[in-house]
């Protein structure tokens, strides 16, 4: 039996996609943006992080519906192993990074994530 469009959309909505919520400034006001990492351009806004996450459900529905109608491939959520990277770096760079992380009272992981975030 062929699935209808709504069933296809619901299947995607039930997958464990990665939600990224960030604060944004607009003049003197702060609002929050929720993005789905695996669905480029799929985002919502809210006055609070929770409101932005609630609003993302409709944005996801619309994004997936449009992608299906237009024949675009819809990415599946990243697995836990796909969210990790292995990085080989020269020993001198490793030492430098570890010292900088220690000087900033951060774990090595947090230091690298912070540097990549603002690269």
Please identify the top-level CATH class of the largest domain: Alpha Beta
Structural class: alpha+beta
Share in helix: 40-55%
In CATH, the architecture of the largest domain is 2-Layer Sandwich
Roughly what fraction of the amino acids lie in strands? 15-25%
CATH topology of the largest domain: Double Stranded RNA Binding Domain
Major sheet description = 3 strands, antiparallel
What is the CA–CA distance across the termini? 49 Å
What oligomeric state is this? single chain
Q: What Rg, in angstroms, do the CA atoms define? A: 19 Å
Count of DSSP-assigned helices: 4
Task: Outline the structure in words.
A hairpin with a 2-residue loop joins strand 1 and strand 2. The protein folds into two domains: 5-70, Double Stranded RNA Binding Domain; 85-117, no CATH class. It has a three-stranded antiparallel β-sheet, covered by helices on one side. It is 45% helix and 17% strand. The longest helix is centred in the middle third of the chain and has 22 residues, at 49-70. It is built from four helices and three strands; from the N terminus they run αβββααα. Helix 1 packs across helix 2 (49-70) and helix 3 crosses helix 4 (108-117). The chain is an alpha+beta fold.
In short, what is this structure?
This protein is of the alpha+beta class. Helices cover 45% and strands 17% of the residues.
Features:
119 residues; alpha+beta; Double Stranded RNA Binding Domain; 3-stranded antiparallel β-sheet; 3 strands; flat
List the helices and strands and how they pair.
Layout: H1 5-13, E1 19-26, E2 29-36, E3 43-46, H2 49-70, H3 91-103, H4 108-117
Antiparallel strand pairs: 1-2, 2-3
């Amino acid at each position: 039996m062929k699935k209808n469009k709504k069933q296809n959309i619901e299947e995607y909505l039930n997958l464990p996609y990665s939600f990224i919520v960030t604060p944004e400034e607009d003049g003197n006001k702060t609002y929050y943006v929720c993005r789905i990492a695996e669905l480029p351009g799929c985002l919502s806004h809210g006055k609070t992080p929770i409101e932005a996450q609630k609003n993302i459900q409709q944005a996801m529905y619309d994004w997936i519906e449009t992608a299906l109608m237009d024949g675009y491939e819809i990415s599946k959520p990243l697995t836990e192993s796909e969210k990790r990277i292995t990085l080989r770096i020269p020993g001198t760079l490793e030492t430098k990074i570890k010292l900088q992380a220690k000087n900033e009272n951060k774990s090595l992981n947090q230091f690298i994530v912070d540097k990549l975030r603002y690269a």
